[in-house]
Design a protein that fits this description.
This protein is mostly helical. The chain has helices at 8-15, 21-31, 40-55, 66-79, 84-132, 135-142, 146-152, 156-179, 185-202, 204-213, 215-231, 233-245, 254-274, 285-294, 303-311. This is TetR family transcriptional regulator.
Length: 313
């Protein structure tokens, strides 16, 4: 009949805070189970992990000290005829792994808390605007304490600006993937417009706050896009030259077309905003692409229409 594994907390409490290593080693050796094919060091290490887990939950006044616990395991290893260097090496590896795991867990928990706060802040700012939103409500919505909220974001202004910057960084990362791709220029423009319009659709509440309460951030958003495209002029010019050689694009001034197109696009977004975002901005994409690519004047279908159309130019 197999020996039952003891509850290590009761063993530790029984030996108490004044235990000596030999007494604790004796108690440990009675409770260690070694499976068939398992060496003594492995059995000791597994026991060590379990003992330490329960030791950490006990009050300092009712448990052996850490140094006594380590010396007790060294004594136990000697009783079992195990190599002390092997045991210490394995125990150190366990400690390092647990330490790294704890740091990773804390980092993940911290990141998750931060993301919850940002999501809650976006909801509150979108619904109430920047000036009416409160840190109390954001903390409640994120299900965190005010102290936790202020550890991540020292003020409402800091939280709002970081939220906007994070969303802009997400947009920028998506746009860069498109601008750096090997797509033809028309496919690049289509994907770029889709990303841009989808961003405003998903963040319409936040964008309204930017426009009405922080117009400097709205201007920064527009400047950001112009800057990003301008930095990629050599890549874009190569794409445009290829499209011209293929007779896809007209030979017109790129800068004039670009700034005119951006003005048109932002005019469409401002109209959507003026109507309180009551429809999906993405639904405007077919019209926007049609006008940007082909204009809004119908092409002549007959020679007579061609003459009439030419006379109006």
């Amino acid at each position: 009949m197999a020996k039952a594994q003891p509850v290590w907390a009761s063993v530790l409490k029984k030996t108490g805070s004044k235990a000596n290593p030999q007494d604790l080693a004796h108690a440990l050796s009675r409770g260690i189970l070694k499976n068939d094919g398992q060496d003594a060091v492995e059995a000791l290490v597994q026991t060590f992990e379990k003992v330490v887990a329960e030791w950490g939950q006990l009050p300092a006044t009712s448990r052996p000290s850490a140094s006594v616990l380590v010396r007790a395991f060294r004594c136990t290893a000697a009783q079992w005829g195990s190599s002390e260097p092997d045991l210490l090496e394995r125990l150190l590896a366990v400690v390092l792994e647990h330490s790294a795991g704890d740091r990773s867990s804390r980092h993940t928990e911290g990141r998750n808390t931060r993301e919850r706060i940002l999501a809650a802040a976006q909801e509150v700012f979108s619904q109430k605007g920047f000036h009416q939103a409160t840190m109390d409500e954001i903390a409640e919505r994120a299900d965190v304490g005010k102290g936790t909220l202020y550890r991540h974001f020292p003020s409402k202004e800091n939280l709002f600006h970081q939220l906007v910057q994070i969303r802009l960084n997400e947009l920028e990362a998506q746009a860069e993937c498109v601008l750096d791709s090997e797509d033809d220029v028309l496919s690049m423009i289509e994907k770029y417009l889709s990303i841009y319009f989808d961003f405003f659709d998903r963040n319409q509440g936040l964008y309204r706050v930017m426009v009405h309460e922080h117009p400097d951030l709205d201007e920064r958003l527009q400047d950001l896009y112009v800057e990003k495209i301008m930095r990629r002029i050599p890549h874009l010019k190569r794409k445009i030259r290829e499209a011209r050689l293929q007779n896809v694009l007209k030979d017109v001034n790129f800068q004039t077309v670009f700034h005119g197109a951006m003005g048109f696009i932002h005019g469409v977004i401002q109209r959507w905003l003026a109507q309180d975002c009551t429809y999906s901005l993405v639904k405007e994409l077919p019209t926007v692409k049609e006008v940007l690519f082909y204009g809004f004047v119908k092409k002549p279908k007959t020679p007579e229409e061609d003459m009439s159309w030419t006379s109006t130019k």
